[in-house]
């Protein structure tokens, strides 16, 4: 679909790395590989805020016969060196360590989260809050903090992030009373989970969330099933947003009728409409290494989100090469739109996405689209 208001609002050129948490730590030049996958919320003053994943990478990662990775260690940032004959560097976002019996990788960048305040319509930058970054502070985040999602439940803002380390690939929770100043709470999911999205509201006094556990083995559905085996969007509940129990019924599953959802995961925190919970999510069509990422939507029952009222197979948002054409010299990935935030704006929603793992995209989507 196409929408009248659909543009990039923030990208690598908008970041001052002299104010990065990494500044002054490394004896090597870094640059912004991507400023993307922004969480979105509305602040008490009416402005919007996005929480941008800044992937900060080495300008020259390969030297002296080694490829280098950035790692947080006891309050500092350091470089690790890997001999080139021990790694596979086919994917620009990471490199694989050869020789093991399972897949082990390191990242070509380290990510941290930058809060950026926008105008109420999300189309102008008001303030870049370099004084309020969400950055690694513990060993379970030593390879970075990625892909924030923000939900407002009652008078409290909840932020989930993906924390990356050799110890675990876990989901961590931060809370705020004003949407800008965040307090670390704890690890809330210990298993690999890329997209934890807390519903913007309680159901029977309990918190609900969409999750997406990762794995290398999935069991098939029987022949003729409407579903396809593979990564799916699961559900969990909690009494306090800290202690989560998987819900026994499935959530959103890949459909056998389309390859566009051969892989899928959560996008925006579900918000309540008069028709049910609106959930925007991503489906991935296989192509080369990364695939083609598109945004789709579903409506879930307001009392039991495991009941899917409607799923639309026509993409809501698709990657748009015209948006990134002015950034062509910075492109390292294509065919990706990754929607990560939504805010009510009256007759339309403001939707925030990452475009090409490079920049932040803002789209105004009329509510009538979901009728």
Task: Please give a quick description of this structure.
The protein is mainly β and 371 residues long.
Total helices: the number is: 1
Can you tell me the CATH architecture? 5 Propeller
Outline, from the CA principal axes? globular
Domain count: the total is: 1
Between the first and last Cα atoms, what is the distance in angstroms?
Answer: 15 Å
What is the helix/strand order? EEEEEEEEEEEEEEEEEEEEEEEEHEEE
Could you walk me through the main structural features you see in this protein, from its secondary elements to its overall organization?
With 371 residues, this protein is mainly beta. The chain has one domain (6-370): Glycosyl hydrolase domain, family 43 (Tachylectin-2, Chain A), CATH 2.115.10.20. Helices cover 1% and strands 48% of the residues. It contains one helix and 27 strands. Strands 20, 21, 22, 23 and 24 form a five-stranded antiparallel beta sheet that branches. Strands 1-27-26-25 form a four-stranded antiparallel beta sheet, with no helix packed on it. Strands 2-3-10-11 form a four-stranded antiparallel beta sheet, with no helix packed on it. The longest helix has 4 residues, at 321-324. The mean pLDDT is 96. InterPro entries: Glyco_hydro_beta-prop_sf (IPR023296), Mannoside_phosphorylase (IPR007184). Pfam families: Glyco_hydro_130. It comes from Sphingomonas psychrotolerans. This is Glycosidase. Belongs to the glycosyl hydrolase 130 family.
């Amino acid at each position: 679909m196409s929408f009248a208001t659909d543009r990039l609002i923030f990208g690598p050129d908008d970041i001052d790395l002299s104010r990065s948490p990494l500044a002054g730590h490394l004896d090597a030049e870094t640059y912004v590989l991507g400023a993307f996958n922004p969480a979105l919320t509305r602040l008490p003053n009416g402005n919007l805020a996005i929480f941008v994943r800044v992937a900060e990478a080495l300008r020259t990662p390969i030297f002296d016969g080694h490829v280098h990775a950035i790692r947080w260690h006891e309050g500092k940032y350091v470089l690790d060196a890997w001999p080139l004959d021990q790694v596979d560097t086919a994917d620009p976002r990471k490199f694989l360590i050869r020789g093991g019996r399972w897949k082990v990788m390191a990242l070509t960048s380290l990510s941290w989260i930058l809060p950026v305040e926008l105008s109420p319509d999300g189309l102008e930058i008001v303030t870049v809050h370099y004084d309020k970054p969400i950055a690694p502070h513990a060993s379970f985040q030593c390879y970075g903090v990625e892909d924030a999602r923000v939900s407002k439940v009652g008078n409290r803002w909840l932020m989930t992030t993906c924390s990356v380390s050799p110890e675990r690939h876990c989901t961590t929770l931060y809370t705020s009373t004003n949407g800008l100043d965040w307090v670390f709470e704890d690890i809330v999911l210990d298993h690999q989970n890329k997209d934890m999205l807390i519903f913007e509201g309680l159901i029977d006094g309990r918190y609900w969330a969409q999750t997406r556990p990762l794995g290398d083995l999935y069991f098939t559905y029987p022949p003729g099933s409407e579903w396809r085996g593979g990564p799916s969007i699961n559900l969990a509940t909690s009494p306090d947003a800290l202690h989560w129990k998987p819900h026994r019924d499935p959530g959103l599953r890949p459909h056998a009728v389309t390859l566009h959802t051969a892989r899928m995961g959560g996008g925006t925190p579900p918000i309540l409409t008069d028709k049910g919970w609106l959930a925007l999510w991503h489906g991935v069509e296989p192509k080369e290494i990364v695939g083609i990422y598109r945004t789709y939507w579903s409506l879930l029952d307001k009392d039991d989100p495991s009941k899917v009222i409607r799923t639309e197979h026509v993409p809501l948002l698709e990657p748009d090469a015209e948006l990134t054409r002015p950034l062509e010299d910075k492109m390292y990935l294509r065919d990706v739109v990754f929607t990560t935030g939504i805010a009510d704006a009256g007759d339309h929603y403001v939707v925030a996405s990452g475009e090409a793992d490079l920049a932040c995209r803002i789209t105004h989507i009329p509510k009538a689209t979901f009728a």
